[in-house]
Amino acid sequence: MVLLWTLAVAVSLAWNTTQVRQSAQEQARSSARASIDKDINYRGLIADLGGVYARIDAGVEPNPFLAHVPGRDVVTTGGARLTLLNSSYFMRLIHDRELHIASPGLRGHATSLHPLRAANAPDPWERAGLEAFAQGAREWSGVEESPDGSVFRLMRPRLTTTACLECHGHQGYREGDVLGGISVTVPLEPLYAQARERTLVFGLGHGFLWLLGIGGLTLGYRILTGKEEDLTRAAFYDPLTGLPNRTLFMDRLEQALLRAQRHNERGALFYLDLDRFKHINDSLGHSIGDGLLRQVATALRGLLREEDTVARLGGDEFVVLLTGLGSDPDAAFLHTQTLATKLLQHLCRRYPVDGHELYVSISVGITLFPENAHTSQDLLKQADAAMYEAKDRGGNAFHFYVPSLQAAADLRLQMENDLRSALENGELVLYYQPQVDSERNQVLGAEALLRWEHPGHGLTHPDDFIHIAEETGLILAIGEWVIREACRQIRAWDGESSRRPLPQVSVNVSPRQFRQPDFVQRVKGILAETGVSPGRIVLELTERILLEDMEGAAERIRELQAIGARFCIDDFGMGYSSLAYLKNLPVEALKIDRSFVRDIPTDPNDVAIVETIIAMAWRFGLKVIAEGVETEEQLHFLAARGCDAYQGHLHSHAMPAVEFERHLG
Ligand SMILES: Nc1nc2c(ncn2[C@@H]2O[C@@H]3COP(=O)(O)O[C@H]4[C@@H](O)[C@H](n5cnc6c(=O)[nH]c(N)nc65)O[C@@H]4COP(=O)(O)O[C@H]3[C@H]2O)c(=O)[nH]1
Questions:
Q1: Does residue 26 lie within any of the structural domains?
Q2: From the CA of 646, how far away is ligand 1's center (Å)?
Q3: Does 160 reside within a domain?
Q4: From CA 522, how far away is CA 476, in angstroms rounded?
Q5: CB of 510 closer than 6 A to ligand 1?
Q6: What is the mean pLDDT of the chain?
Q7: Cβ distance 271 to 300 under 8 Å?
Q8: How far, in Å, CA of 384 to CA of 396, rounded?
Q9: Which atom of ligand 1 is nearest to the CA of 591?
Q10: Which pLDDT value is given to residue 102?
Q11: Which pLDDT value is given to residue 644?
Q12: In this structure, which residue's CA is closest to atom 12 in ligand 1?
């Protein structure tokens, strides 16, 4: 680029310099032409006047070529001696005295191949021009070097006029013949001096331009290379942790697998996932979550060798690639196991983030290659499946991939794909579980519970697919469908006049669904669209949702409450059970999680928890509903302590709408 720019500036400078020199010559040419034009005009004028008289004593000699003209010399009555000057003689006087006609230094010379006077004899340049005129040329010009420097020369033919014949008639010329030429010499040096000055200005200008261009290019180069670096970083590195991203990692994994296959060398792939990270992120906010991920990334990098690749695939998922583990599979396995233990020991600890002490544990899935897989994608799937296995076993553990895990991982993927079309295929349905008054055993309402009538797997419970819907974002569409379907069902039941209308239906709202900025508008829209009175719908929110953004949650709840919608807190006791939100949030009921109900009245801890929840709710003026009530004993215990309502198999399972109608009778 610099070379090209330098070349461009040099060419421009050379071109401008020649232009300046040429323009000096052009200037000389126009001076010469003007001079010749004047010469010819004067000659014509004097010829027209029939010549002019001049005083002989003024240094003018009588013209010998006019000796035959009568009256050539006259004496005036005053005694002055005059002689007749014809045009040639007059112009010769001008040229001889170097009376510059057009510009300083300019010289004129009348010449001919047959001069009457020796002084009019042509020099070689003029001779060549005169010969060219004889061939029809109208102008002759050129640059010559003289002892005084370069000169520009221009000559034009002089044609024979009647006046000329007076002197030249005897030479055989006729009117219109080329009699000779009027040649003019213009010194170029003064013009070149001016040109040099302009060239200098051009040179300086070009120098400045060159410097400017170089500066611009350097800056542009820096910006471009900087941009390129930025782009490369953005394309291959994770902006949050600075670790390689999925693209770069997959490339390295690909290379490592090929090398391992070629050289029969072992390698290992670790898939790491932070346990309950989603919970931390949801409850404490993304910036805390990001801070934690950065710290874990740094700690992880610090535990590995320089040649091991650590990457972040996204979210809280990290991968580690170990290569060059030798050819012995057992030794490779042992090495990998040792490292996995070390990772768990060092990474599972408290991390201080923005004033919070966050305890982190991780689940690690490991697969060894090349024996386990043929492609890098397979390897990643295997390590991922092994990681899920470690998580399913309670987390804070590592697990090696075994082929049976693949089937589970494949199933999960299959479920994800199937779920995408479940809604539009009409495979989702709502079941209804009665909510019953603890004292009078009267149905107060129902909880709508989602079911998936999977074409291959049959009736599928939400615990098997809600998390997939959450992770993929499908929960937004599904959650909206649930509210709309519950409203539609309320309207349908209302239409059956034979029965007392069902006072309320509760629906579960997922955290992601509640977080939508337009959640309130969406719910209002559905209520308006279906014409259901807002008081007939109870939105069940988990503690997690509320803790995540207490103020935002309170605002949404109040907005919907203002139109009459109702809220209750689901799975109470499973999260933080914070008194603060009980005080601040306008909810009307708490639902005791079924895990606390299961072992009452035998487990003293559960007994204490349930009693506390009921007492607390009472103090805050909230109603209490117990979930998962399966025995009379549980019901008596709850009813005796003031639990308002319950759900559970004791009264009824969740059932399809039609069955629910029959149940109501
Ligand atoms: N062992 C036992 N279990 C009982 C008994 N009575 C009711 N259950 C079950 O307990 C769950 C109660 O719902 P949940 O706590 O809101 O827990 C729900 C809720 O968190 C979620 N879920 C269900 N439907 C939806 C939905 O439409 N949207 C969202 N976001 N989540 C839903 O899935 C969870 C599980 O739902 P289900 O499988 O329907 O499971 C239901 C219900 O069938 C009993 O006596 N004993």
A1: no
A2: 13
A3: no
A4: 11
A5: yes
A6: 88
A7: no
A8: 15
A9: 15
A10: 47
A11: 96
A12: 627
449 within ligand 1 shell (Cβ under 6 A): yes
187 lines ligand 1 (CB under 6 A): no
Domain count, the chain: 2
The answer to whether residue 474 is domain-embedded is yes
- Residue 497: is its pLDDT beyond 70? no
Is 435 found in the same domain as 371? no
440 touches 431 (CB < 8 A): no
* pLDDT recorded at residue 220: 66
pLDDT, tens digit, for every residue of 367-403?
999 987 789 999 999 999 999 989 888 889 999 988 7
pLDDT of residue 563: 93
Q: Are 569 and 542 in contact (CB under 8 A)?
A: yes
Parent domain of 554: 416-664
Ligand 1: distance of its center to the CA of 449 in Å? 6
Comparison of pLDDT for 144 and 223, the residue scoring more: 144
Please work out whether the CB of residue 462 comes within 6 Å of at least one atom of ligand 1.
yes
Q: Is ligand 1 within 6 A of the CB of residue 253?
A: no
Answer whether residue 172 shows pLDDT above 60.
yes
Look at ligand 1, atom 30, and give the residue with the nearest C-alpha.
510
- For atom 3 of ligand 1, the residue with the nearest CA is 628
Q: State residue 221 phi and psi, 5-degree precision.
A: -60, -45
5 contact partners, CB below 8 Å, separation of at least 6: 210, 213, 214, 217
pLDDT score of 287 more than 60: yes
Is the CB of 570 inside a 6 Å radius of any atom of ligand 1? yes
